[in-house]
């Protein structure tokens, strides 16, 4: 006998344009900082008006995950959804978002569900109905709030910090995933409790020390993704925030990796003056939150850096090797200053890479690098350009390469004028031995400022 299909409908009236409301429902990647039950959403497929999503959300206090397909009718402001793979006690579920325009310019939002319960058991039906009731009410109320704060200082605010690391990405990811050891590894963590009852779904409770010595308790659900990213959402936030979601990402580079901490927060406007003082504004709260969260994230990434670089087995190069590196850089910079572009490019390996923070794509291969140098604009008549390179830090890696980090300036001096610093940069190289000398396998130049 086929299982009974149950149907529900919930609705709300929102004082916002229907297109704006529909956009909040359409952008599934934003759901975690719009809808309280939503933890994380991954797009698996996107093609025109059809999408396939992996969704993590809470239901009756439990973390559930499923895969859904969506059909978007943008003209009709409707989105149909159907779970491909449901999680017990749900046997099957689908539904539709419908946004209707009202005469006063507002919107009526209807959220429809249809579902079947595992084994058609009454307790399963009751569980699902309770979850739909709780989540639908929370989602519709949150949708209204999100629509009303759009374009204001209370809209979601996203920022990120990053740290370059001379070590394999896997060791950095392991440090970030093993948050249960943060109390012994991080100075700003006073207490931590980590549970992972379901593989790759972590419940993290943590007491964090503020600069003034006070502690704040937060609770988060962390989703550990197959590619090493960790997405999280705080279920218990400090007073200044009504929503805080984030993601840890570790990107591999030829010279190691880059750890990135990304935060999205919604300021709790009602708490601003109570926490920061009578004259404080929402903008002040944003700045305070970014400084606090960004500071703690950067501390965490720097400790991950120390941990991973310690495991990488790197060691400072001996004096004779360091002297040869200084000679290499002195020659390389002089070739560039004297306009010997082809000779300068020859100091890169045949498959060498030259990358800058201002590049859309790195230059790959000695021939490409040489062509780019030849196309570089000359200095204005009467102006001399010099490259100054600070003393590099250098480490030998287990693979035999040498990694260096140094600062470099480009100084321009016009006839009769004082020297002017044209560019300030921070650089990282991977060097490989070439007989008695060196070649650049990979160079990254990060520009200070814009």
Automatic annotation (TrEMBL):
CDD domains: NTF2_like, OtcD1_ARO-CYC_like. It holds the Pfam family SnoaL_4. Transmembrane segments: none annotated. Gene3D superfamilies: 3.10.450.50, 3.30.530.20. It comes from the Bacteria. SUPFAM superfamilies: Bet v1-like, NTF2-like. Residues 322-443 form the SnoaL-like domain. InterPro entries: NTF2-like_dom_sf (IPR032710), Polyketide_cyclase/dehydratase (IPR019587), SnoaL-like (IPR037401), START-like_dom_sf (IPR023393). This is SnoaL-like domain-containing protein. It comes from Streptomyces fructofermentans. The lineage of its organism: Bacteria, Bacillati, Actinomycetota, Actinomycetes, Kitasatosporales.
